[in-house]
Every structure is written in C-alpha cells, then in structure tokens.
Amino acid sequence: MLEIFVLGFLFGFAIIYAKLNRFETISGMATLEDLTVAKAMAFAIGFGMIILAFEIGFGFAGYHVKPFVLGGVVLGGILFGIGMAILGYCPGTLAISVGEGSVDAIVGLIGGLFGGLVFTLVLPSIKGVLGPNLGKVSLESILGNHGILFYILAFVFGLVLIYLSFYLDKIEGKKDKKWLYSGIMLGILNPIIFLKVVQNRPIGASTAFPYLADKIVGATTNPYFQKIQTPGYWEVVFLAGALVCAFVFSVFKKEFAFQCVYPRWEKYKGSSKAKRLVYSFIGGFILIFGARMAGGCTSGHILSGVMQIAVSSIVFGFFVFLSLVITGKLFYRR
Length: 334
Hints:
By secondary structure, the chain is mostly helical. It has one domain. It is built from 15 helices and no strands.
C-alpha cells in the first residue's frame, strides 16, 4: 500500500509540475487555446511506448491491454470528452485539483461518485449497448510474437508522437518547457509501474469512483463491484498519494486556495459560482459514466493504453479528442 501511495505522489508531482491538472489548462485544450496537455501527453506516450516495448520484450513487464468493446469505447469516449470539456478536469487531475483546494473539483468529484454509482446500477440493462467485444487487440497481438517489425514500428510510432509534441510546441510558440519535463516524468513513471517487480499494472484513475461510491452506499454484492474491487482499491490509494502531493506542494508554494470560478470560465460563462458548481457536478457525472462505459480514462486508456499501442485505447482517444473539441467550441461561447 505504501508503494502505491508513493507512486501516486510521484504521479501527482508529474502532473502539477506543468499544471496539467488545472481547469485553465484542460479547458484551454477544449477551446484549443492551450496545447499544454496535448504536448505533454504526446511526449509521455511516445517516450513511454519505446521504453515499454523493450521492457515487455525482455520479459520485465507484461501487457495490460483493455478489450475493444466497440459500443462502450465509442460512446464512452464521446461522453468522456463532453464531461471533460464542461468540467475542465479528468479523473486523475480531478483528485489532484481537490488537493489544491479547487471547490469545483470537489463538486466534480462528488458528481463523479454519483456517475460511478449509477453506472453500477444500470450496467445490467445497458450491456447490449456496450458490445460487441472484439477482444484485446494491439500491435503485439496483430503481429504475433515479438519480432523485429514490432520493435521497429513501436520505435517509429514513439518517435512520431515525440515529434508531434515538439511540432505543437512550435505552433503554440511558448518558451515554457515544463510540459516537456512533465512528459518525461510520466513517460518514465508508467513503464516503472508496469514492471513485474513493481506493480505489474498500468496507471489508472476512473475505477476508483464506482469503487468508492459502491462502498459508501453498500452496493458491494453485485458482479461489477466484484470485478473492480482490486483495481478500484489500488486506484483509490494511488489517487490519495496524488492528492496529498498536490496539497503539500500547494501549501509549500502558498498557492492553496478555495476557488471555483477561473478566468476562462468567467470569460465565457460568467462569474456565478452556483452556475459553475452545477456544471461541475454534471460534468463530473458524465465524465465518470463515460469512462466506465469505455473501461478507462485519460490515465488508463489514453496514457497507458496508447503506450501499449492498443486499438481500443487509440479509438477511445480519437473520440475523446473529437468530442472534447466540439463540446469546447459549442459550450465555451461568449
């Protein structure tokens, strides 16, 4: 448990270093006014992809590819992007921003707990919508055993994503390189967590929400809770470490503050705190419900899954980005 907490603490530091958790940063991605998240994620995935391919090839780690459940991945990705745009956080950064005192993040977290609970309750009736399950499809499963072609393609894909991160940085024209250092940290931390001698699993965050919600209300006898019990507990401890990291550093830097309305929100949606908190709850609910439909989020699907070149995660990432940007254009209007 202590090791998981420490890894979460390090994850929190990697995120807060470039302020990847902030509402301004993530909502800025939705409106295409801030590319920090896209740059950091592209570099982290590309860098980690290369490390992980050789790590698994030498038997130091194993694959943890999410199944390609077509309906769940597509519809869940769309809902996730909508929730992320409205809320301005993803499941992992939500917990981190709570540690910094963000009131809207606290309300969004509560909305996420409700989203996780409702998903648990309605899952039996929506299973038909989630399918079909096309299996755990990845570059490795397509090519078979690890051959030279696999390593070449993994290396090339990784380099393309790294190049993309620098290309986006050039377009944006900012001198601040904190996104790069955050990307390096995330690109190293995830493969470390994958190691068999460490945790033998990827980073994840959204399973913590239905796990906690089900525990709180006592809905623990259903098949879904039994399925998520182990990963859910792991992610709760992991996110607790990230939350504590954010709290410690925000207090140390004298940046801890209870705040719910930020400049970009005020610019487009006004200064009403009540309005912001209502949308935070709604956004959190949609975000987690979508994540559970898809079986993962930005941490478990996009960061960890695309790093494994998993088809389900690539498709999820595509629909999340598409939905995020469309929602951002429609929702953030003056």
